[in-house]
From TrEMBL:
Protein's GO biological process: lipid metabolic process; response to antibiotic
Species classification: Bacteria, Bacillati, Bacillota, Bacilli, Bacillales
Gene Ontology molecular function: phosphatidylglycerol lysyltransferase activity
InterPro entries: L-PG_synthase/AglD (IPR022791)
Function recorded in the entry: Catalyzes the transfer of a lysyl group from L-lysyl-tRNA(Lys) to membrane-bound phosphatidylglycerol (PG), which produces lysylphosphatidylglycerol (LPG), a major component of the bacterial membrane with a positive net charge. LPG synthesis contributes to bacterial virulence as it is involved in the resistance mechanism against cationic antimicrobial peptides (CAMP) produces by the host's immune system (defensins, cathelicidins) and by the competing microorganisms.
PANTHER family: UPF0104 MEMBRANE PROTEIN MJ1595
Gene behind this protein: mprF
Name recorded for this polypeptide: Phosphatidylglycerol lysyltransferase
Organism expressing this protein natively: Cohnella pontilimi
Residues annotated as transmembrane: 20-41, 53-73, 141-159, 165-186, 198-221, 295-313
Entry EC no(s): 2.3.2.3
Length: 332
């Protein structure tokens, strides 16, 4: 009993430390955005950028179609990995809810709502749904890291290859230890670990490879947003650069401390655009306009998701208040 309490206390302290570090970085990035805004914010330039974009309805349609298709590909990848039985379009509302919640709350908990809906949709346990959502998030992060590394190499932005390889090696070793540990626990007959072991083994399949490929394509399509905004501002960038900028920006949202990552988004995108030669004033303007567009898209996606798959408020709050249920428990 005392041992269990000590383990829980250690885990709790580690979680608090991780949250403290994440919050510190996020607040620091928010402070940088405030500094950038005070120095480079030009209200007239931002207003002109909005007007320029609104004057190009075809570009807005292209951006919206590409962004929407990126979520369609994410839904397809999720269905493939999770071996879902429902059609792809039914996997879209959970993604829409997740996007909406992440733009509504100062903490990134949209995946909990996505997990709750996944459990109901496919009639699975909370653990299973949470695992598949977690794996898809891992695929997202791995693709963003890959795109980020490729951009650093292609455009010659200074970085330390030796340190990069160390990070890759440590991450690979940690993942290997995790898989081995879960496998060992599964052989011991622990039901929870056994379920996750069987799910993790599915990563070593053609099905998982297809899900990864679709995920990568989805992030390529999302690059249409910064590309379209900069095009409207007559400050063109190459499509590959737009994908890289978007990947770096979304990757920075790990330090989400405000609704929709306000501040961290603009800081990361401004820095990424500056790295490829865009001047500071244009960079922060493009970041603000791009983020405003994504906010509008997120709220529209949330409304459409609610219309397609209504969720009572109390049920959504219950999903947000827990991480996992008892073994085998299924969503109501």
């Amino acid at each position: 009993m005392f041992l269990t309490w000590d383990v829980r206390r250690v885990k709790g302290m580690r979680a608090m430390t991780a949250k403290a570090w994440k919050g510190t970085v996020g607040i620091s990035m928010l402070a940088v955005f405030v500094w950038l805004a005070l120095r480079f914010w030009e209200t007239r330039e931002i207003a002109d950028a909005f007007r320029s974009l609104l004057a190009l309805p075809a570009m807005i349609a292209l951006m919206t179609a590409a962004y929407a298709c990126s979520f369609l590909l994410k839904a397809a990848a999720w269905r493939i990995y999770a071996q879902g039985k429902e059609p792809i379009h039914k996997h879209l509302p959970p993604l829409g809810y997740s996007l909406f919640v992440n733009h509504l709350l100062p903490i990134k908990v949209g995946d909990l709502v996505r997990s709750g809906l996944a459990a109901k949709l496919e009639r699975r346990s909370w653990d299973e749904a949470l695992h598949t959502v977690g794996v898809m998030r891992m695929m997202d992060i791995s693709v963003l890291l890959a795109f980020g590394a490729c951009g650093l190499a292609v455009w010659g932005i200074p970085w330390e290859p030796d340190n990069g390889w160390r990070i890759v090696a440590v991450s690979a070793a940690a993942l290997l230890l995790l898989i081995v540990g879960i496998g060992f626990a599964a052989k011991r007959g622990r039901a929870f670990a056994a379920r996750h072991w069987s799910l993790l083994r599915s990563l070593l399949t053609i099905r998982a490879g297809a899900a990864w490929l679709l995920t990568a394509c989805s992030w390529i399509l999302e690059g249409a947003v910064p590309f379209g905004v900069l095009y409207a501002m007559q400050d063109h960038v190459a499509p590959g650069q737009a994908v890289w900028v978007n990947s770096m920006t979304v990757g920075g949202q790990v330090f989400h401390v405000t609704p929709g990552g306000i501040g961290t988004y603009e800081t990361t995108m401004s820095a990424s655009l500056a790295a490829i030669g865009v001047d500071a004033s244009t960079a922060i303007t493009a970041a603000v306009v791009s983020h405003a567009y994504k906010f509008l898209f997120a709220f529209a996606a949330g409304f459409l998701s609610w219309a397609a798959m209504p969720v009572p408020l109390q049920e959504g709050i219950r999903w947000l208040s827990r991480r996992r249920t008892e073994k085998g428990e299924r969503a109501e």
